[in-house]
TrEMBL record:
Pfam families: FBA_1. Residues 19-271 form the F-box associated beta-propeller type domain. It comes from the Eukaryota. This is F-box associated beta-propeller type 1 domain-containing protein. NCBIfam families: F_box_assoc_1.
Length: 303
């Protein structure tokens, strides 16, 4: 791994440096005002404001809350997109607690567009159940043309834990039901392993983990459980695989790597606040975007 320093020119673009996604060397960050930037070319672009996030519709709702955000690449259109999900919080309990809306920003058009008839559903036992995204920052990931979050589907008798994905090309939300043994448990990480979507969830006291994988989007696929990690001495927080046999984890405020072959833990000189760690795969690139939002992709190299 090679260090890439985020220069002050990026920090000056926004008062908050919350990273929402990294894709092909481009970073999406900010708070109310979003910015995309390429540290390699030092190019930045502030995204326009949208009408959706300005205020709730009518007097029944008092505030609009950001419920999910994702940044990624549309391989078919050769374009970059940002998706946001909002929820209107009501003034009283006489109406539905949350009215949700979603919007998509497209770099090539430099504009936001609201998704009509927005609703996320999953079919379980031939019944369509509404799904809500669980906005947990370390349980999200861009992978293979889609952005992923954790979600929950509340039925009349049961509640299912699902994975929600937004397809960057077709701009639709889909759901993947998690393995039965993972239902009712807190997932620790969404990552990629050997070209497949991987799910990490704890066992017992939390110092052992199962790694489930699913090929492609997995909507109609089958989960497989190829490996188990642990028990380990401490209770580290797994994040993502940087190699097929190397898993990055946080352990008491320090980043460590775990080698699946040797079963050895190596401490890395990276420190932070426990629980607030987040990790992204960054690839240095020469992607340029003009003021009109058009892309010019030269090349990129993994670091």
């Amino acid at each position: 791994m090679q260090e890439t320093r985020i220069d002050d020119y990026l920090l000056d673009k926004t008062g908050n440096f919350e990273i929402w996604g990294v894709c092909n060397g481009i970073i999406c960050f900010g708070e109310g005002e979003l910015t995309i930037a390429n540290p390699a070319t030092r190019e930045t672009k502030i995204l326009p404001k949208s009408r959706v996030c300005l205020r709730p519709n009518g007097d029944d709702y008092r505030v609009r809350q950001l419920r999910a955000i994702g940044f990624g690449y549309d391989p078919k259109a050769d374009d970059y997109k940002v998706v946001r999900v909002w929820a209107d919080v009501p003034n009283n309990n006489k109406i539905h607690p949350f009215l949700r809306r979603a919007e998509v920003y497209t770099l090539s058009t430099d504009s936001w567009r609201e998704i009509d008839n927005f609703r996320i559903e999953v079919e379980i036992d031939n019944v369509a159940i509404m799904v809500y995204i669980l906005y947990v920052k370390f349980l999200e990931r861009y992978w293979n043309g889609a952005y992923y979050w954790m979600g929950t589907a509340d039925g009349l008798e049961n509640t299912w834990t699902v994975i929600v994905l937004f397809d960057m090309t077709y701009e639709v939300f889909r759901c993947i039901v998690m393995p039965q043994s993972c239902q009712g448990k807190v997932c620790l990480s969404l990552t990629e392993l050997n070209g497949s979507l991987a799910l990490v969830h704890p066992l017992g006291a939390g110092n052992s983990f199962d790694i489930w994988t699913m090929d492609e989007f997995g909507v109609n696929g089958t989960w497989t459980k190829p490996l188990r990690i642990g028990p380990l001495r401490d209770k580290p927080m797994p994040f993502l695989f940087v190699k097929s046999d190397e898993l990055l984890m946080e352990d008491n405020g320090q980043m460590v790597s775990y080698n699946l072959t040797t079963k050895q833990i190596k401490k890395l000189p990276i420190y932070g606040v426990k629980i607030h760690f987040r990790t992204w795969i960054y690839e240095q690139s020469l992607v340029n975007f003009s003021s009109q939002g058009k892309l010019s992709i030269s090349s990129y190299n993994s670091i």
